[in-house]
Amino acid sequence: MLAQQLVNALSLGGVYALFALGFTLIFGVLDVINLAHGAIFMLGAYAALQAVLLLKLPLPAAIVVAILVAALAGLLLDRFIFAPLRARNAPHLAPMIATIGLAISINSAVQGIFGAENLRFPVDALPAEAFQMGTIRVTLIELQIIFLSILLMVALLWGLKRTRVGVALRAIAESPKAAALLGIDVEKLFGVTAVIASILGGVAGVLIALYSNALFPTMGQPMLHKGIAVVILGGMGDIRGAMLGGLFLGFAEVFAVAYIGSTMRDAVAFGLLFAILLLRPQGLFGQAAQRRA
Amino acid sequence: MSARTFLAAVVLAWGALGDVASAQIKLGAAEALTGNAAQYGLPIRKGFELAMGEINAAGGINGRKLELIIEDEQGKKEEAINVFKKLIFQDKVLMLFGPTLSNSAQASDPVAQGAKVVVFGTSNTADGITSIGNYVFRNSVTEADILPVTLKVALQKTGLKKVAVLYGNDDAFTKSGYDNFKRALEGLKIPVTTTETFAKGDVDFKPQLTKIKASNPDAIVLSALVAEGAPVMVQARQLGIHLPFIGGNGMNSPKIFELAKDSSDNLWVGSPWSVENPAPENKKFIAAYQKAHNALPDQFAAQAYDAMHIVAQALKNVKLSGKLDGDRKALRDALPGVQFSGATGPFKFRQVTDKAGKPAGYDAVQTAIVSVTKGNQYVIQK
Amino acid sequence: MEWLDSFWSIYSTLVLSMGTNILLALSIYFTLSCGLLTVANAAFMGIGAYAAALLTLNAGAPFSLALLAGTLLPAAVALLLGPPTLRLSGVYLAMATLAFGEVVRITILNAEGLTGGALGLNGIEQLTHVGHVAGAVLVALFLSLRAAKSRLGRAFAAICQDETATELMGVHVRAYQLCAFTCGAALAGLAGALNAHFTFFISPNEYGFERGVEILAMGVLGGTGSPWGAVIGAVVITLLPELLRGLGYFRPLINGLILVIIILYSPKGLWDLLRGARRTAVATR
Known about the structure:
The complex is a heterotrimer of chains A (293), B (382) and C (285). Chain A has 293 residues and is mainly α. Chain A has eleven helices and two strands; from the N terminus they run ααααββααααααα. Chain B has 382 residues and is an alpha/beta fold. Chain B has twelve helices and 15 strands. The interface between A and C is large, with 45 and 44 residues.
């Protein structure tokens, strides 16, 4: 049982990490807690599903559709909500409250169009393979999720380190003012960040929908709660932290079920988060905060 | 046409409209049409509308048509109370259907009881709802009556000796189902290897299922709605667990074949309604529903459909005076006597008692049909 | 007066909800106004609601005692919780209080013998009258308006502007913050206790993440510069869905969009916008 639970924890942790990547990126660069990330996550999943059902596209092409839809959502999010609020020098909490309203609207629109009932990808669109290794069973989807979340994280880390955009983004995360003085087009890069983060969210939506076999308009909500926990565990705005935080939460939940009791699953996760915050405010894997506003 | 004659014409038309409106019998429904619970509220609405269409097409009630005012209560208790008050005091409906969730019913049904208006739940299964008072009715069968039968049949046919239990512990519907399963298992002296829970909106059930697998049961007792129950079955089969599942009311939906295709075999459910029940009333209901919505109905739709017919039956024996208070009471007095056979089979009411032991509202008396899934179909066992 | 009777029979619950929402918005105003982003208000509301309801249901306690307990118990919890958590700042504080809220919700869910678990507590007597709610709102509003103009309010504003500088000036920042946190908890608890006694029923899921975010939205939407901001925020968030009832399926869609538009046009809150409008009106006169 232990070996199987380890596999479960790894894939659940991968799922959480995948969701948290985009969430943490927006926080790190734009300094916004984007409560619409769950809605964009759901939008990605529904876009891919419709691409499979209506356009009869194969799964990889459907993921491309999801990426496009999520990118568009991210672009609009920055263009029509974050940018005007930045221009008006809005207080810290204003963008977060705006994203609450946006999430309500997106969820409601999707429910109005596609219904409130659970949907799923057609069985023949899914890779159905499962591998038996001793007592352990792993499905291909789980392996793909673990692989993809590692791949995305590595790509993101590489991009931030090596590309010019990445270097500029890191400069903005340190200090938007200083970055602007260095001649970086800060406004444009805010937009780029929102798009990249939303793409990450949308792809996470597709993968998690494939993993769980269930799409519903509010599917982003529980994930958002967990995503927030992951981002805090990993240290706000820390990409590697999001990955480790995701895995940590996955393991914490699975082992809470295995050894404490499943009624305590969420209590353990959030109790741990609470305890960690009190003991290590910078997060489990974050460096000591350099910036203090 | 001069302005004056035009005005006169408008007034006349308005008056005529008023006459038509008063000739209709106004019923209210508060259901969750948006938000998370809309997945149950929307089929319920379809069930009501289907039955009302049939009744009106057949000439209505003693020559008067039925009119249904349906309001969205979003699955929230405050909204349910607000909507109940609006329907009772503003729209002045004769009686109320709803609300969708048991938790909302606990908050809103006392409002109807206080105003002496019949409230008829079609989807509230939690214990204690009808103890609120003698204006509270429901045709949603409490699982206390159904689950022991389901378990007994599954026991006979599969020879199971011990079971594991999995249920949603943060939702009134699934928690209530679990309480009844627990009682039934104790009654039948079936040992439980492990009891696991999940939360509404969870997408990952593998840690619990892995634990269940290790505890080596002969079957898994599952108190869940299809939204979570279907992924549970899919993930169980992925983990190589091919045991039978024994579900409650919540798992009795043809939607399981869509959501857990190829993983849905060997699910035992018991309910008065089955999509496979060959009774003519049910066949008629399913055909009409399919024609209107191009999809199979579920139990929520079936119970709403029957509820509307039950009220229509009662109304046939009520002489409506036009005085709202008197009419509301007359309907209350007529309802308990209704005997009806619909999509959910033969039906009658049974009075329950409140906490103090005094007679209160009315629960349904119906017989369970136990079926098991095989090859994307329910197969009736009893 | 007939129309008033019929208005009241239709909308009494809405009016009472608006009152308790104003209390909740004021509860978050307290912490926001001294620079603390805490979102435990929903949990405090739940603690207050359960404490009061259990007292009237099981112990047959008088309503006044239940209200008192519903106010004091969350305040006591806040006094215990405050010292370790208020060391955190910004988002970290928000998340710690959010996590605390989830733990409270799950504890209520699991303490089935006492709280009824997911099935909640039903059959709570309808003891809350409009007088109770109006009284509570007036007292809370009066006190917070007085506080805003007093030394306390000036200290809050100073802390909000610059914590370190205020500390250097000899103001005991942590003590003021703990005071704000505790007062907020007491108000949220009172709101919960009142709310439980006009809705017949309470269950743990009402006091989760969504409620916490809704309370925060009321506080921010109205504006954190004055207690009046909290009142406006609560009124808008309560009334908006009711006014949009005619829209059917699109109600939440439009509701959400309106929230976004309000924030876009008055990022500092509606109170700020109204005050600005008044000031311009005075200036152009």
